[in-house]
Design goal:
Length: 295
């Protein structure tokens, strides 16, 4: 049998190169053998939070110079990384948890390195997105990753309205202090009858997974203060493909309402009057507003 660590060691690791590396999102044991090998191989490690990364490195007895590259200094720090690379170094980049560039710093650094004509190498591993989707079920076979929603209600509603008619599942990240408010907004804007998975503290000691209807999500979260702790991944069922009759059967109501009130108000009233899917009515209202009825 071939030793897995030997397989990691026998790969080609060019220099200079930036190695964009996934790290555990909670459980340190989730790090890959290849990631451990590369962390010990590189000349230095760029990190979103050097203190957090130092704890991970200490766990595996790896000592390397650390360079802070986070959302507040990414453009400036990227130039320092490029300079080190031009000197012939290998550099790993890690965010605090999961895969860099996925609602984490890293994308601008990758752009800067690639624009400088230098190599960028992915070292894949754990991701909260794929971890949550793997336990969601067949209703999330295709998905759109929407990351963190805007914190301001008006902007958040606008973003959700833009996503409302998407047929694929929607995946969101959320912080604990906004989780309840966000799930309420999802139910109000996307409609109560979609399925959702609330994944909290994935891979950590208090991990919990709860699948329910969107209408049930706020009450479930509010029922226990412990459910509002930790980092969240929210997976919401897509709108599905509307049939021609679904999309057009309420045109008369929508047209009358659109003559008197804005689109958002017209859709809200139409949902109340017909109990039809909000996402279907919203998409159709936009068509009617743009093209006029019957076109």
């Amino acid at each position: 049998m071939i030793d897995p660590l030997t397989l990691a060691e026998n790969q080609h690791y060019p220099a200079p190169a930036l190695y964009v590396m996934a790290t555990p999102i909670g459980n340190f044991a989730d790090i890959t053998l290849r990631a451990l090998h590369v962390l010990a191989l590189v000349d230095r490690i760029a990190a979103e939070d050097t203190r957090h990364t130092a704890q991970l490195l200490a766990r595996y007895r790896i000592t390397r110079p650390l360079l802070a590259v986070h959302q507040h200094n990414e453009c400036e720090a990227a130039q320092r990384v490029v300079d080190f690379l031009r000197a012939g170094e290998r550099i790993a980049y890690v965010s605090d948890a999961g895969t860099p560039g996925i609602s984490d710093p890293g994308a601008r650094l990758v752009d800067a390195v690639r624009n400088a004509g230098l190599d960028v190498v992915p070292i894949p591993g754990v991701s909260a997105v794929t971890a949550a989707l793997s336990v969601t079920g067949d209703w999330a076979g295709t998905f759109t990753f929407a990351g963190f929603l805007p914190t301001k209600p008006k902007q958040r509603t606008a973003r959700l309205q833009a996503l409302a008619s998407r047929e694929e599942a929607l995946v969101f990240y959320e912080a604990p202090h906004r989780a309840l408010e966000t799930v309420r907004a999802l139910a109000e804007t996307l409609g109560p009858s979609r399925r959702m998975l609330i994944a909290r503290e994935i891979t950590k000691l208090h991990e919990s997974l709860h699948q329910c209807m969107l209408a049930e999500g706020p009450a479930w979260l509010a029922a226990d203060p412990n459910r509002l702790r930790g980092e969240f991944v929210l997976v919401v069922e897509g709108a599905g493909a509307p049939t021609q009759s679904d999309a057009h059967q309420h045109d008369a109501i929508l047209t009358a309402l659109l003559d008197e009130v804005p689109v958002s108000t017209a859709v809200k009233l139409a949902v109340a009057l017909t109990s039809a899917s909000r996402s279907v009515l919203y998409a159709r209202a936009l068509e009617l507003k743009k093209n006029g009825p019957g076109r």
